[in-house]
Amino acid sequence: MIDPAGPHAAAVARLWWVMLGGSALLAALVFALLTVAMRRREAPDAHTPKARVWIVWLGLIMPSTVLAVLLGYALVLGGRILPTPAPDGVAIGVEARRYDWAFRHPGLGGTRNVLHMPANRPVDLRITSTDVIHSVWVPRLAGKMDAIPGHTNTLRLVASRPGTYRGECAEYCGPGHKDHGFTVVVHDARGWAAFTGAAR
Amino acid sequence: MKALKLHQELTAIWRNAPGWRGTLCSVNHSDIGKRFIVGAFAFFAIGGVLAMLIRAQLATPASAFVGPEVYNQLFTMHGSIMMFLFAIPMFEGLALYLLPKMLGARDMAYPRLSALGWWCYLFGGSILIVAMLAGVAPDAGWFLYPPLSGKQWTPGINSDVWLLGITFVEISAMCAAIEIAVSILRLRAPGMRIDRMPLFAWYLLATAAMMLFGFPPLILGSILLEIERAFGWPFYTPALGGSPLLWQHLFWLFGHPEVYIIFLPAAGAVSTILPVMARTRILAYGALVAAVMALAFLSFGLWVHHMFTTGIPHMALGFFSAASTLVAIPTAVQVFAWIGTLWSGRPQMKLPMLYLIGFFVVFVLGGLTGVMLAVVPFDQQAHDTAFVTAHLHYVLVGGFVFPMLAAAYYWLPHFTGRERVMQLGETAFWLIFVGFNLTFFMMHLTGLLGMPRRIDTYSDAMGWTWLNLLSSVGSFVMAFGFALFTIDVGLQIWLGRHHRRNPWHAGTLEWAMAIPAPAYNFASLPQVAGRDPLYDQPDLGVALARGEGWLGATRHGWRETLAVDMVTGEPDHIVILPGNSWLPIATAGVLAGFFLAMLAGLYWIAPLFLVGVGAIGWRWAWTNGAREDYGTLPAGQGVALPPSTEALGTTGWWGSVFALAASATLFASLLFGYAFLWTVAPDWPPPQLIARTVLEPSLALLGAVLAIVAVRRVGPDGRTALAVAAGGQIALILALVLLVVLRLPSPASHAYAATGAVVAAYAIFHATLAATMLAFARARIASGHIGGARLGELRIVRLWSDHAAGAGVVATLLLALPGWIA
Residue A63's closest chain B neighbor by CA? Predict the structure, then answer.
């Protein structure tokens, strides 16, 4: 997740570093106030901040502002990684079951446990399950999406460069859960043409 | 001399019978509270041992220590035990023990219900532990998602153990919620206006309300899943019109509020202990109350943040994401109010304060990762990874375990009457604190590196090896800390010197009594004029012991305490509480029979146990009340008040209101499920399954009208009206049975029919209950229990009858509606 290989994963990684920085600042503020409060030895006096400062400024206004900014940022980001219609998009069917993955590439036969996709083109996985709930996760490319029997969910993947990536099941699905993984092979344009052509 | 005599009289009335019979029959809130606390701690130890096994398994890559089958039971049981058998019972115990003492009362509103809750908890928890020892523990994860937990993929009794055992334990949670709410609202010391209540009571009031609305969805979900497993009625099976997502909605409708149900009582303890440690009063009482109420309300609007990866539309995600981050605001208000309190006082670094510092550090970090997880794109990456495991432990251990450890050291002198002996508590703190952070901080990192939850092994190539080893080492350091804590507490109990009253110079009423506390708490009840009665009147305890407060005399051997007006705290009537009783343990025992019969698959025998529960319930209700009017009785301070048998708005009436609110929530969750399946499943309800009918709805409407009108005409001699009302309820039952039998297809054939049958079953159950209560009222009139000024029971019966009539009409319309609009 902190080693992204695609634009969406990179955006989320950036979001993470921003949130980490913000959280570190807020935690430092709280702990500093706590330390000073514990070390104060003089009797309460005119220098003690009023309830207004603690409740209204620190308790209400500060977190509201931080959260509003964060939410706005996240909503925009979330909108960007949605599977919006794309002219050069590729749709791939994913069917999860205990304990393997069946992928249906467009115009091709299926593969098992190996997902082929082109680099730098939006790939929409249409995900479902034949038995229990699983979850598709390629940590370096995108967030995860559940595979639920009776439902079809869509997850958009975009990879920046060719290579091989690890994919796994993120939802506990029984005793074989830990081995319920798959491989993602990302092709460059020529490799993808060869893959689709060769199969044809 | 007078004080000593009063003490002896009160002891004779309130004490337990000697020997083991006394133990089984005790209904005293201090006893039950202590049992809950000790029991919860025992389950905590069991859950802790399971955690050690988990960490041992994960310490090295490719470990073959326990294997996947056992490992799956380990993490499922660890989560289930810590949530249902440790955290909730622990705060129930604390509440049961402390609340009456803090409110200035002699017991909770329903002492026998407390005892029933205890036995249900003990028996239900034991079922789970015995199953684990037998190797058939639940193994589908603590949130038990179907279809994995369904019959097809978990064919053994593992899931049934969870569903039945946890539901059994939840009975105790519902009992506790009702009586905590009623006790706080009514059984306070005179003068304790609602704005003078201790903050702990406010927190628990919010918690109780959340339990009343949070647990019913889970109970419903469990019942539906158990029915699906036992009888094959499809609620969660997509091929037959169900949806596995229904379980997730019902589970998280409970599951998210659950986090705050655990956190709020702990935060209440913080708000109580912290100002005492800082030698000042709490800052911004009103803001804290508002923050608590806001948290309780908001926490119901954000369950979907556990489901961000289930394919929910983007706009809905945005809404739930916003709601989820919003809870950070009331939390921030509390945190800064606490720091402000420390700032304005002169804090002492005593042992409870040390644990509170630990709470601050861990909880604030957990809260910050919580905000991160509320952000949808990040959650979609971190969901179901070790990062989430780390976050939830930071929130729950930080938000519950550390405050409870502070509470343990703060209130232990109250339980034992003794001082600490050695400085082991400090060492224990550092072991727990360092061990905890070592364990779970690492899990943030493994999660970010892509380590999912619930995997039993991993390969060295993943790069998680060192982090996992450090986590495991940390967890053992933490375990040593808890062992040392246990030793420290043991030493205090056995070796500690006797403690004086009010060792911390606190302001709340639980310190206005001798320690350890006598069975009746207060020889006489205080008159309260502020939020910290003991600061206003430091010698209050002695005056009360001399019998100078309210109810400073005994009569008829009654267990008496005062009920006040909810808002103003003006004395209202004298509550006569029941004494020691076999009924609670007998009820729990028969209920255990029901759950065990279900577990064994003896579905035809199981209902017999429910009939047994009904019979005991009749007996239980029968032992209340009186056959004569006493008029007003002297209550002290020159005031005369009626006893509860002759009062209006009794605790029994309020308890019924809350019980019905919980029941109505369950019904509403069921209707939600019906509507949810309708919207998500294609072709629902299937047209060929729908039948058009006018007969049954007409009969049901007629029955409901009869019941509602007749029950209002029931007076002390209104036996005819009672019979008519009961007839109305029976007509309702008949209409619903006819609908299910004649108009609905087999419940096993489609989720539409299955849901409809459960809707009807709910209404039939309540109508049966109402008819029984009407019969009970008739018998009570005949026996002279109802009559004169003693009309409270009729008011209660009316509530239940009205609810049954309303539910019956809604159920009938729901079942008939698809036929009309198709």
Answer: B329
